Each structure stands twice: as C-alpha cells, then as structure tokens.
Task: structure prediction
Amino acid sequence: MQETIARVRLEIEAYDLTTAEQLDQFRIAYTGRKGQLADLFDQLKTVDPPDRRAVGQELNQLKQLAVARFEERQQQLESATVNAPANPTFDYTLPAVPQALGTRHPLSLVREEIVRILARIGFNVAEGPEIEDDWHNFTALNFPENHPARDMQDTFFVKSAPIPGEQAPAPSYLLRTHTSPVQVRVMKSQKPPIRSIMPGRVYRNEAISARAHMMFHQVEALFIDENVSFADLKQTVYYFVQELFGADVQVRFRPSFFPFTEPSAEIDITCLICKGQGCNICKGTGWVEIGGSGMVDPAVLEQSGIDPERYSGYAWGMGIERITMLKYQVKDLRLFTENDLRFLRQFEGLQ
Result:
C-alpha cells in the first residue's frame, strides 16, 4: 500500500498541467470521485490495524498535495485568461479597414433635382397608388373604350374577384401605365388653384431593351387656375430645361396627340451628346425628345369636378430614366435596374 502511495505521489508531482484540458484530466484521474485517491481510501480498510493510522496519514498528505497542485494551477489559468488581450495576434500598427459607404442611385438623384427645381416655382409633390382602377387610369383621362392603350399587350391587368352580393361586375384593376391618375386624384380632392408634380413608378407590358423597360419612372406637372394658357406651359418648360441641363440647351415643341390634353405637343431639347450637330443618339437631327405636354382637355376637368368654363390648365411629363440618360450620358436603360456596383459607384459624391 505504501509503495502504491509513493508511486502515485511521483505521478502527481510530475503531471504536466500546461493547458486547461490537462488540468481537467488530472482532476478526473486523481481528485475525482472515481480517481486513484478515492480507490486508495477504499483500500485503507484492508490494511492491518497497527499500520492503518500511519497509512491514513500518508493518504491525507497525498490528497492535500493533489488538491493543492490542482487549485494552484487552476487559479493560474483563470488569471491568464482574464488578463489576456481579446485578440493577442492583432497588430495595432496596421491601417484601419476602410468602410465602403453606399451611394445615391442616379434615378433618385435626378428625381430629387427635378422636385427641387419645380418646388422653387411653387409646385408641391403628390403621390398615388401603383395599382389603379380603370376609371382613374383611362376613363377619367378621356381614353375611349377602344383606345390601343387598353390592349393587354400594353397594360398589366390585375385579376379581380366578383364582389359578394353585388350584381355589377367587379372593377378592373391594373398596374398604372402612367402617373396621370394621380392628377385625377388631385383634381378631385383639391380646389383650384392647383400646382403639383407627380413622380412615381409605372408599368407597361413592353420588351426590355437598351431603350425600353416594363418598369420605369415618370414625373408629371399639373397647373390649374383661371386664365392659364399655353404660354404659361412653355415658360415653365423653358425654365425647367435650363435649370436642369444648362442655359445653352434649346427647347422646341412639336404638335402631337394625347387623349387628355388639347392641344398637345412633344417636347424636344438640343442633343446633349453632339450639342445639336447630329449624331447616332439623336439620329442626325440634333434634337431628342424628353416628354409630352398640352393643355388639360375640358372633358378631363369636367370628369374631375372642375368647371372648364372658369378654369384651364396645363400638364406635362417625362420619363425620369430618359432625363437621367441624357444628363449623365448613359446609353443603356437596363443599367439602372441591374445593381452593378461598378456602374453605381460612378455617381458617388453627386447631390
């Protein structure tokens, strides 16, 4: 028994306690409930009574040695863990990791610039739903029942469920094809004078290409008051174009047709690529179209509850993508929706 105690003492004194894992193995092997010391105390009853007292003292000394070594090393490891740096391998002399900041989308930049320009002459912003009913999107804007814009190839219609208990069919809903329905909502909810702009997202069932997309953005302006004339429309467009593109950019109006305006006109500006000299972008004409305009049709005013005998007004609008392409000379419309960071980072720092 005493030879076993001497052997275990040598093992305890020589046991390597470098790591926490080794310390835990030491506890299991010697001081635990099933360790060697517990076995030796169980064997004490087999020792001859005259020798039992001396052997018991040696066992107590051995246990104190094992416990003292365990507790001492445990405190050392805990102290080293508390005082150790969070990342001992971190080099504090290295330069800081740069944090890449996001940038404003070019369409957002141009939209906000348009709003700022027109806000300076009294226009406020009005918004409306992107899912519209047929009346606001077409009928109230003087579109006849057989107008091509009502064709399924141009418009995304939303399937409508019948109204329970109603004999009349459910109203037809669609993704708005222009922001003009917002004009109708403004005219029905406000009394003249009205001076509002309507920026927003619109949808048309078109093939996606470098010059067209099924989803794009428009902004329209509406001014209704007494004695509003086409001259007011022209002066507003002149002001807007020169503020957005520069004082040297020329504007021209070409006669056109829109169901909700009469008379109507397309708006062209000097080609910003060739400065009016002619290029492939403007097809050699020196002019590029930016939008449509006209005097609000009296039938539209009447549909919206405004007296056409007393009030008149103008409306004009354009695609924000088209304006952005001209302003920043972007040649492919699809770049605006592809989220390519190489493209978007070109607009960093712009306001």
Notes: The chain has eleven helices and ten strands.
